[in-house]
């Protein structure tokens, strides 16, 4: 070995080899530390990092954030950068907790990055517009679409709850016109029950996006029934209380009824005839109470309500004479003249009977005395007077009133000349 080291050629070769090795080592370090400063620090960029606003969402609404994404540049040693790049909980925060309603420029804050790296955000701040939230209660409207099965009809929807709380930016609170649920009843044969999502609409019928509805979903039931209509309920009164008694009060708990049945039957209904009540047997001074079934008539399938409650108060009656009641003629032939001969003046009198409070209010103008001359030939005729009197007012007994009329042909134009 000593002999080799004394050989200058061997030493030169060894020096060359060592030099090559040192060059290789230095070159490898330079390649490994590319982008690294003299102190071993380098930087990395993270693009498209979302800006996360921090605020009280129950009181405020963020209208706009500009920009919504930023570039984050982190600087540090290699191990720290790798740790930062692999982290999943970092973010760029926009702290609005102490910001009031309006437009603001707010600095951006890095959150969740390791402490041994330097973080730079570009841009470093964001422009934000925030508004206060307002609440109001609104009724739920149900939009029923589709047509039920043949012969059936969709009834009034039932909504639970029927009112909801709407939360919206204060600037838009008056723009919310309706809260609507859509339910389809196409070809339905039985009630349709759905959980329906609610949507807010403005005055032009457009959907409003910036509206929170609580609850957002409601239960809706749409009854499916026969066609129906609502008409007055007419009770049939038979006879009248005996002499000496009158009806002081007549009260029914409902004066209308919803009638279900074929559409052609409903189209002809102006009122619905209810049960009959016989007044003839009411011979005592008292209150009579009835709970009566309303009968189904003429292909009607259902009534709502199906019963009617009636209270009738009977009291001792009084009488009163109505003077100077004009006699009305009905059924006249256009080719004849008809006039009342007796009683003179064409007026008569009548004694009426009824409950004191009702009789007191009746005047002669409230009573109609009628003479029917239908199909009578020319000449004089004695006719019985028929009467049209106010409700629960009757003619006192033993009054067979008659009148005489004279019917004559009208002169022709030739006879006039």
From TrEMBL:
<dbReference type="InterPro" id="IPR053154">
    <property type="entry name" value="c-di-AMP_regulator"/>
</dbReference>
<dbReference type="Pfam" id="PF07949">
    <property type="entry name" value="YbbR"/>
</dbReference>
<dbReference type="InterPro" id="IPR012505">
    <property type="entry name" value="YbbR"/>
</dbReference>
<protein>
    <recommendedName>
        <fullName>YbbR-like domain-containing protein YbbR</fullName>
    </recommendedName>
</protein>
């Amino acid at each position: 070995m000593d002999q080799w080291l004394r050989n200058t050629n061997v030493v030169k070769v060894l020096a060359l080899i060592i030099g090559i090795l040192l060059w290789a080592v230095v070159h490898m370090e330079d390649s490994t530390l590319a982008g690294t400063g003299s102190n071993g620090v380098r930087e990395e960029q993270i693009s498209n990092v979302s800006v996360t606003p921090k605020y009280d969402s129950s009181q405020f609404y963020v209208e706009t954030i500009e920009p919504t994404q930023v570039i984050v540049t982190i600087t540090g040693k290699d191990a720290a950068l790798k740790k930062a790049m692999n982290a999943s909980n970092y973010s760029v925060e926009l702290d609005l907790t102490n910001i009031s309603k309006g437009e603001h420029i707010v600095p951006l804050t890095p959150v969740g990055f390791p402490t041994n790296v330097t973080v730079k955000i570009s841009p470093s701040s964001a422009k934000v517009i925030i508004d206060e939230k307002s609440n109001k209660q609104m009724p739920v409207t149900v939009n029923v679409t589709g047509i039920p099965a043949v012969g059936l009809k969709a009834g009034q929807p039932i909504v639970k709850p029927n009112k909801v709380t709407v939360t919206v930016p204060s600037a838009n609170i008056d723009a919310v016109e309706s809260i609507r649920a859509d339910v389809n009843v196409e070809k339905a044969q039985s009630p349709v029950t759905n959980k329906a999502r609610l949507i807010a609409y403005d005055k032009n019928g457009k959907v409003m996006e910036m509206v929170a509805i609580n609850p957002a979903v409601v239960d809706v039931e749409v009854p499916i029934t026969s066609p129906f209509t609502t008409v007055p309920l007419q009770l049939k009164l038979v006879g009248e209380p005996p002499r000496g008694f009158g009806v002081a009060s007549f009260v029914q708990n409902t004066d209308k009824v919803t009638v279900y049945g074929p559409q052609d039957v409903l189209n002809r209904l102006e009122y619905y005839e209810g049960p009959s009540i016989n007044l003839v047997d009411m011979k005592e001074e008292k209150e009579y109470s009835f709970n009566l079934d309303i009968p189904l008539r003429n292909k009607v399938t259902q009534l709502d309500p199906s019963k009617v409650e009636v209270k009738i108060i009977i009291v001792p009656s009084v009488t009163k004479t109505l003077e100077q009641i004009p006699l009305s003629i009905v059924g006249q032939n256009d080719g004849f003249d008809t006039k009342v001969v007796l009683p003179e003046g064409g007026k008569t009198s009548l004694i009426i009977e009824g409950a004191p409070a009702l009789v007191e209010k009746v005047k002669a103008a409230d009573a109609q005395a009628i003479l029917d001359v239908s199909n009578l030939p020319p000449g004089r005729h004695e006719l019985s007077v028929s009467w049209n009197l106010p409700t629960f007012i009757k003619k006192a007994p033993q009054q067979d009133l008659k009148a005489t009329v004279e019917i004559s042909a009208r002169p022709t134009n030739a006879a006039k000349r």
